[in-house]
Protein: SSD domain-containing protein
Amino acid sequence: TVTLGFALGVRHVGSAQHCVWYGECGESEKVPGKKYNCNYTGPPKPLDSEDYQLLTVQTELCPGYGYGNRSLCCDGAQLRTLKGSLQLPLQFLSRCPACFFNLMNLFCELTCSPHQSQFVNATKFNATALNTTNVVEVQYYIGQTFTNAMYNACKDVQAPSSNVKALSLLCGKDAKACNATNWIQYMFSIDNGQTPFPIIPIFSDAPVSGYTPMNNKTYDCTEGLEDGSGPCSCQDCTKACGPTPVPPALPPPWTILGIDAMTVIMWISYTAFLLIFIGVVLGAWCYRKRTIMSEYGPILDSNNPLSLNNDNPDQVNASCCETLGERFENALRIVFSSWGSFCVQHPFLVILSSLMVIGASSGGLAYMRITTDPVELWSSPTSQAREEKNYFDSHFGPFFRTAQLIITTPLNDTFLYSPYFGGSDVPFGAILDKNILHQVLDLQLEIEGLVATYEGQNVTLKDLCLAPLAPYNDNCTILSVLNYFQNSHAVLDHMKGDEFYVYADFHSHFLYCVSAPASLNDTTLLHDPCLGTFGGPVFPWLALGGYDDSNFNNATALVITFPLNNYLNDTVRQGKTLAWEKEFIKFMKNFNNPNLTIAFSAERSIEDEIDRESNSDIRTIVISYVIMFVYISLALGHIQSFRRLLVDSKVSLGIAGILIVLSSVSSSLGIFSYAGIPLTLIVIEVIPFLVLAVGVDNIFIIVQTYQRDERMPQEEIHQQIGRILGDVAPSMFLSSFSETVAFFLGALSNMPAVRTFSMFAGLAVFIDFLLQISCFVSLLGLDARRQEGNRLDIICCVKLPEGQETKTDGFLFRFFKKVYAPFILKEWVRPIVVAVFVGMLSFSIAVVNKVEIGLDQKLSMPDDSYVLDYFKNMSKYLHTGAPVYFVVEEGLNYSSPEGQNVVCGGVGCNNDSLVQQVYTASLISNYTSIAYTPSSWLDDYFDWVKPQSTCCRYYNTTGAFCNASVVNPSCVSCRPMTPSGKQRPEGEDFMRFLPMFLSDNPNVKLANHPVSVLLGHAAYATAVDLYPNNTGVGATYFMTYHTILKDSPDFIDALKMARVLAKNISQSIDHKVFAYSVFYVFYEQYLTIAYDTALNLSVSLASIFVVTTVLLGFELWSAVIVSITIAMILVNMFGVMWLWDISLNAVSLVNLVMSCGISVEFCSHIVRAFSISVKKNRVERAEEALAHMGSSVFSGITLTKFGGILILALSKSQIFQVFYFRMYLAIVLLGATHGLIFLPVLLSYIGPSVNKAKVFAANSRYAGTEREHLLNY
Structure:
């Protein structure tokens, strides 16, 4: 203070000291409630002792003038007016001591300087009735150097609660448009509602017209003051920050010679493979030609132990592994044969037992719960995002629900607004036309008045809405531009003018409010508030859309948001909320206004539309299944002649088989429902499809093998079916058990949708297998007896007369055996097949890393959903994303300077504090997705509790909080005007005043201020979780916003960056901080989905490999071939996903896991048939396997599924069209082509050698029977 006094005094040494005013006189004519100063040209007068206290001790208004008890040109009344005028800047600018000191200097010199006459010129006066003269206009000569220095010290200061720069609230325009001179001009203009008379600033460093401009010493924002105040923080002073952070450059795409590297690598690899493969094939062909020898010579050589023509069948040189495999195979054959024979002999016992088991298992469906909660579906209870959500909800309450409108207009009329008091014309968009605003206000008021009913009670918006100041102010929070006009038609029409000119109207009010949304007085001639009726500001970026940069007047859309309280654990209140939202949706669907185009959504909209979609898809699914059922029922029969059509058909057996498949599904659902595991829609929609694929395939294999089989002499029907089951059941067991193990291992996934599907599917597949080798075999025995007795299908009491019929093979079997298999395995066809399939594989590997990750939320909606319009408009018009909260977990000591400094963003705070780091991130929002500086309850609390402020007061009699609106002499300031009192509160003081701050409301006394500071209750009531009895601060949050996020990659990047930032903050402050936003639980899965997919599919493949190895009799090479083929199908699925725009997410991962299972069906039967074949060479063995098993696989899976899948294309649901129709079609086509084309060719080249032990066993088993000649066929 000594230095300042010296600075103020030195400049005028030797100058005449006289005043231009002293004291206050008449009421201002221009600004009601304010007074003019009295004209006085005499010498300065000393202050009396009470006023001197006011100047120096009580408030330290003008600390420089306290030195030496000097005489001044102001009295106590003027000082009190000055104190009141500086309250508002104090709230915002005292965060930066240098800025506020310079500002006080400007006003103190003007009001009180003993050298006034050197730089203040009174130019207009008027007389009063009391014989005094009012000064009604002055000129204030201010040094340009001082002006620039003051502006530079203040231009970066933030208003923490409003997420804007303080100058936006103090300059009458956006901070970007504010400069050194227009800021001072605004502060001295009567238009701001504070200045009682015009003060005309004249800026110059040189003397002007005999006046020496005021050019006092200033402090830069990087400098500390003489009283010990530190320099301003980085957040409030860019110069204190160092260089602006530069986001790291995006990694360049991986290219070779400017072409995608994976593409180049796969082209080279494929070309190299082709050259080597063609070379080997040609070399082998030439070798055979030269030696005039068949490629199968070694096998046909009679002396070769491998030869089937060996004359000594007792001589076998089988290895230990081959012998073990044969014994295992034989054991399986004996077990299944005995079991099959038993089932046919005792059909009613087996069927009754099966029905009892099915009934008991399906009984669990009574306890079935279906989960539609998206959080439960997509987020694991133990995931980081879920735990953070639970922490947030338990400490601050659940994130509010919203109902939102995005309103545009088909009108294209833009218009210009010309401000009366000068300035360039301002263009306004058509949506901001006053007539349109009135229509929108009508709509808004109608929504406020909606009445829903819940259990006989009326429910209105007031019962549910977020009202932050309740019960002091129970108005609902409505984030709407019409809240700038207090949601009132009268205020919207309010104007000031005469018959010639409009001085101020809704245009000027709007332009002021978008730059100062927390204002209680717009400083135009209207003096209307901008603060919303709910007691908080409506930030323009939340209420307007489609504008450019920050030119809100160019907006092309209005956004109205109704936040509603979220009652997660209160079913009655939640029920009321849902009822009101339902009424809101119904009202909006029926609303019609030709001038307004409205997209809308409520919190329940997405779930409602998914439910509606599911219901409409039931019809599609039912038709799909009916087509598959009809096909199965008809295709199972092998009709020998038209006369025997109704005898040879297998409609009843087909229906029974389908019922067994559905019973296995219901049993699986029931068993898990007993265990309390909830179902998901994905389970209900996918599992019947999967089990039908697996189950029907097995049905076709059993039935068609029986139809092709010749009963041996003296063999009864139960023995024949037992023998057939012994042949085919190991193959069914191989495929079913492989799938079951693969699915159960898939249940290790931490993604709930994948885990639930895998568990239900694994059990359903295994139950289906058990029912098929028991119940279905018994039914097959009964049906075989019916057919042999010439009884009609379904009407089995009707019997046909005996007739001579010739048994023939089915058309499909004949086609595969005589035409298809020989063609595919021709010597010139096989290389082409290998080349094509390896080419497909190379392409798929090249694009596997280009499959997009995420789920476009638009896909989850039906084609005709109103929510699609909302999603489209949201990405087109909105400028701000979801709120993001940086949560500081409990345990930090806010009462200590160390604890405060690691969090706050003001003077003395650490450069790497929480607020500072989030602020720095907001400077590179394109990279971090953090849009704004965070609102900081701690910094606002420090400003609120300052001794110079009138906000923090208490009754000195009771110690209770005294609101700023109360006029009572017993109300005293919380903190004394002493050096210690001016410091931040610590220890007990901190906790003593914090609850007062958190309960303080904006009050009417502040209505005369141009801007109301957003006080604790409205802004931070939920941001601070106090311990019981206010003994300390627990968890707290600091809120900001994400930038606008339009698609899945945006959301995923935003989550990643927020977590990186929170981790950096946690390390800097040595305390746990996490970022939370409402969408994190849904998008967290995508951070690890590539890893999860690789792990799931690898584990499934590994399990299939192990099971196949064991169940094929320890034939390692066969298992390798099965695994390679399935891996190729999976990789090709990724190629199809890229081509067909199918993204990788939980839904497509479930389908990939399923495709892994279905691929086993396409491959394992054929490989097993190949491995047990005793034909002479690989080509013939592959041909036999393809002929016998290929036709069953083709008719059992491919044709069954094909009809059903095509119907899915008709679904209204986009998610069905993309993830079910497209992916299922790809699964079936890729599975069929690999299983029926590529796999036989691969086996013909590198299939496992014939198992000598199995050949010997087959020779021994069939020696002396009619089947012996088949072995040498």
Notes: The first strand starts at residue 21 and ends at 27. Confidence is low (pLDDT under 50) at residues 1-14, 293-315, 1004-1014, 1268-1273. The chain has 43 helices and 29 strands.
